[in-house]
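Thread: Modeling a multi-component assembly for a lab meeting

Hi all, long-time lurker, first post. My supervisor asked me to bring a structural picture of a complex we are working on to next week's group meeting, and I have zero experience with this. I have the sequence lines for every component (895 residues in total). Could someone generate the structure of the whole assembly? Inputs are pasted exactly as I received them:
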Amino acid sequence: MSALADAPAHLVTAAFLDKLRSIVGDGNVLAQAEELLVYECDGYVVEKQTPDAVVFPTTTEQVSQIVKLCNAHHIPFVPRGAGTSLAGGCLPIGGGVMLALTRMKQILEVSVRDRYAVVQPGLVNVHLTQRLKGTGYHYAPDPSSQGACTVGGNFATNSGGPHTLKYGVTVNHVLGAEVVLPDGSVVELGGPVEDSPGYDLTGLFVGSEGTLGICTKLYVRLTRDPAAYRTMLGVFETVDDATQAISSIIGAGIVPAALELMDQGIVQALEQAFHFGFPLDAGAVLLIEVDGLEVAVDDEAERITTLCLANMAREVRRAKTAQERQLLWKCRKQAFGAIGRLSPSYCTQDGVVPRTRLPEILRFITDCGLRHNIRIVNVFHAGDGNIHPILLFDERDKEQVERVLKASDEILEKCIDLGGSVTGEHGIGVEKISFMNKLFTPEDLAVMQSIHDCFNPDGQCSPGKMLPTSAGCGNEYVPRKNPGRKASL
Amino acid sequence: MTNAFTPATQTELARFVAENAQGAKRPLTPVGGRTALHFGYAGKDGAQVVDLHGLSKVIDYPARDMTVTVEAGLRIDELQTLLRTERQRLPIDIAQSARATIGGAIATNTSGPRRFGHGTFRDYVIGISAVDAHGKLFKGGGRVVKNVAGYDLCKLLTGSRGSLGIISQVTLKLRPVAETSAFLWCPFEIFAEVENALGRLLQSDARPVALEVLAGSAAHLIANEARAGLPSASPVLCVGVEGTPQEVEWQLDRLRKEITPYGVQDLIRVEGESAEHLWTALTEFQTSADDPLTFQANLLPSRCMEFADAAVKLGVSVQVHAGNGIVIGQLPEEAATVEQALAALSSLRQFARQAKGNLQVLHCDPEWKSRMPMCGDPEPAWPLMRQLKQSLDPHGLLNPGRFIDA
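Re: Modeling a multi-component assembly
Sure thing. I ran the full set together rather than chain by chain. Output:
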């Protein structure tokens, strides 16, 4: 394990556990070592720490009571959804109590007329869209892990997904929230109506990675289903040509619904897994979807095809049936699952560059892999400039691990150099905390720290996350020891 | 107000604020185009005006990334003219664009009819720099369209009305311009039928970008401004679409079929130059200041027609962004005293509250302000907001007494 093992001796006593049980009932508290093992990490498997107890509240009132109880005993606490996050956002630093919100999964209200839904945080993302089927509306944020991840987790990390290129990330679809603040008080931010007076605290809370409080209810915006769409696969000889094509498409003022790149390494793994009929000799493929009015989508698809061909695409195929489209998206969304075929361990990064710099960062990634003798494959949200290079290695080989860490850091630093960011959708969590002072000045961080301290003065709520200065329980931050990310679905 | 301080650079702005924080500790009132100075309460006397119009540089416009970084004092018309050279735009309707600045528009979170199709500033501001009450220049977000590093200070500062920091620079996400746009202007006899039509439009085959309802003398005023010879019966449902000529044509045709069954009196196409005038008139309505008082109510969209009906009976001119549940209302001239104005507002305020919303006064006689809901009824999170204001601006130097801390 890690430096976390040095955390101060926990204060979770048998009497404390009894108090937890009296709040949520015997069946909703886990405290046995073997039961807690499941909760030692999220999708970021590098650092592990088991909480002292996991509680499953079913009401806001219970969340509030648990938080108050923890405060009274100076015990740190951290919320958790499905644990699919990729940056250690729900790592229980300093142990303490983990509030698993997965039993708060009700859809409380759906109003198509007023285009909103009220849901509990533990609801699985895709369940909302399934429930909305037939209404003409859907919930737009669609992270690749949407079959498992929760809307509360999406709220905490401001999750993206392929279709956020056109429709925006989670924050663009959250109207309000009920939150339990770190002192245990309950407050409503925003609500089902737009333009609530005052500061946009909802917007501030989204993406705050659990450091400002615990979301117990969400008001989300429903989005009209596209009238029509066309899904295409552009086949390119090289990654360079594919990234140039992306630049041309965006540069021409076309905003597709989604624009995803998969390179040869990924395509080969996907083909083995799903037998879609991907061209195995292509350097890269682009998965492109346009949506809009039936009367317009063919024109837009045609313009994109022309731009792809002008950038040396070998061919541009169209998904002819709904089934074919579905299979294409299944391949894309389960790409990470197919990587097991390539390597025993892998580590993915979440950098962002301006879209015009994609060719440059991709060349850099290739060079970087060669320099460090690490195989790197790519599958990412190209239209947003959000890269996900996947570094393949064997974690049993410590020397390889070192090289992977070095290569990862170089890639992220290059993203910063090119005017980008180190995270587009996974979050800072504990993983990228050391990059915060490369992205932000001490003045920027001081303002963020003031905000943190205003809500979470003792730092007991999600300690050690996001801010390099957010000391909690003596942990400045978790040093990165080794990669080994298994990632999401 | 005394002489304004007009910095030429962001560093100069920061230095001035820092000196004030260490020295005189005068309240500071940041201004852009001075188009929204009437917002909020009167604030403290002796405020020092900080005029941002000198900060108007375009820092970076990588058009092929569809983002732009500009200083906060850049005027909206200048910004849009620049973007048009690349066939791009910021698709937010901002009134008085020849005066308003991008920083001011963000600080007041202004919007207009296109918000139904394109959203508001919280969907477009991806990076922001500001000077805090201590005179420190800080930033949030960045210059890329997707970024979740750190707290989202863009959201916090949007709509903060200069009370948390003086916005000095912003990075915006952009959209392509629409080739063309048009409206269907649909006079109705009763609000209930408009509501039925709106319900139908939520399932439309078209994708309108604006769903406006005009009632009381608003229909007349806006019809006049649009100079298209439109009948100014009331209420009017006005549906805006954008796209290629082919998309616009197809949508107008669909909308006509969809709206026709709902007791509409007429369906008039507004196109070309008239459509441009109509967009402008719909955008500027909220700023016409001849009336004694302008308010904005936000409520559930499904309750807007009932609200508008009640408002019209009180003599109020009403513009509804019906897809979003936003109502702009102007009291009639007869509401000449503060008591009369309050009386007219009280039932509407209550209605908005019941429809899960709120009502705030945008503009009124300065003498009336202390008795008016200039910032709406306090939301449950108000104490938390005050705490946040206090922690970022402990000496209350930024627009004190005008917004959260009034």
